[in-house]
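Work Package 4 report. The design task specified in the project plan requires that, given a folded chain encoded as structure tokens, an amino acid be chosen for each position. We show below one input record used in the internal validation round.
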């Protein structure tokens, strides 16, 4: 799904029976996996690169600095859910994105949270500033 007019990005994904826990609901660890996939899709959409090679796309060489999740309503696989992402802060080497997991009809908020990533230098593996293009693209999305 494309970027929405309000600057949010929606990535639709499917959950599967093998992602369930003993209660038959989506296991909490799979939210992080689905969020990672949505983040990559977001980067591909915004920056037009589909690689994690730091030599080709230095701005996608990142580590997670902070992750906060609030589980609100269980997801019962197999179903589709929307991961909605909103850029809330761009710093020299950091990017904070708020996210929600919602039912496709938007009626159920399953999970919400925030994630901060830090860009790393592909050679030194130390924090590095975003490129000007990355900053420009992502700062335009901050509401």
């Amino acid at each position: 799904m494309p970027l929405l007019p309000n600057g949010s990005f929606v990535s639709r994904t499917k959950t599967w029976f093998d992602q369930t826990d003993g209660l038959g609901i989506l296991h909490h660890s799979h939210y992080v996996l689905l969020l990672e996939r949505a983040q990559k899709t977001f980067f591909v959409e915004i920056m037009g690169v589909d690689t994690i090679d730091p030599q080709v796309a230095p701005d996608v060489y990142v580590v997670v600095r902070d992750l906060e999740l609030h589980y609100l309503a269980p997801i019962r696989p197999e179903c589709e859910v929307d991961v909605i992402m909103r850029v809330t802060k761009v710093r020299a080497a950091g990017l904070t994105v708020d996210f929600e997991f919602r039912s496709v009809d938007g009626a159920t908020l399953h999970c919400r949270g925030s994630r901060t990533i830090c860009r790393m230098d592909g050679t030194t593996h130390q924090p590095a500033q975003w490129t000007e293009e990355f900053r420009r693209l992502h700062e335009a999305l901050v509401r």
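Helices lie at 28-47, 132-139. Validation will be extended to a larger panel in the next phase.
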